[in-house]
What does this fold into?
Amino acid sequence: MQDGVSICDLKIIRDGKTIIPNLTMQIEPGMIVGLLGPSGSGKTTILRSIVGVQAIAAGTITVLGYPAGSKELRTRIGYFTQSASIYTDLTCIENLRYFAQILGQSEISVQEVLELVDLTKNQKQLASSLSGGERARLALATALLGKPELLILDEPTVGLDPVLRRDLWNLFHRLADQGKTLLISSHVMDEADRCDSLFLLREGCALASGTPVDLKASANTEEMDEVFISLVEKT
Ligand SMILES: Nc1ncnc2c1ncn2[C@@H]1O[C@H](COP(=O)(O)OP(=O)(O)OP(=O)(O)O)[C@@H](O)[C@H]1O
Ligand SMILES: [Mg+2]
It folds into this structure.
């Protein structure tokens, strides 16, 4: 598969501890894929390995047809880290211009992403004075610079109010409609319903995968929380 992400027999050890024992997963292009699991289950570790900033002990990760971490992927992946990677002593526009310069992007793309995350009116505001949601949207804007085909978003909606969360999910769906692939981690099971497909993770292992509808049907429930609990009890 050329366009998505293919992980095969991935093993990751951190500080002598096996975090991911053996993980195989496929992420189809143009989809919103949710990586769901409790705190410490390995979501960030997996996302880091796809971006190419995590040493792996075994296995292969192919991203858009290249091995993870390849130079060719630098502008093709947008990464929203769990703690927002923005400079708080710069304004919104200064942050974006800085990252745009690194990525070789134009002023037009800076304006485009500002508009996309609805921060045009805040562009001259210092990032330190932004609200939590505005900060998250600025970090998202930096991840969108360069029009990446693959977006890796590590808990992008944490701490946001329901309206803002809905708006961001609408934006994610618009991006997927344009053909982008989104891999989004969350430990909030009700966000699962907004994804096209899901991987449920526990202690570095995929407990189950499939569409939200299929996973709920297989556990005979309407609640994603219950799907997870029933899978945990089964294993
Ligand atoms: N630098 C590190 N050295 C050793 N162990 C680490 C390191 N970073 C993370 N871990 C461990 O790896 C495991 C998975 O961590 P990870 O950050 O991937 O989890 P997560 O699912 O993203 O959790 P959260 O929902 O809290 O963000 C945890 O047990 C964590 O303690
Ligand atoms: Mg994490």
In short: The pocket of magnesium ion (ligand 2) is lined by residues 43-44, 82, 154 (CB under 6 Å). The longest strand covers residues 17-27.
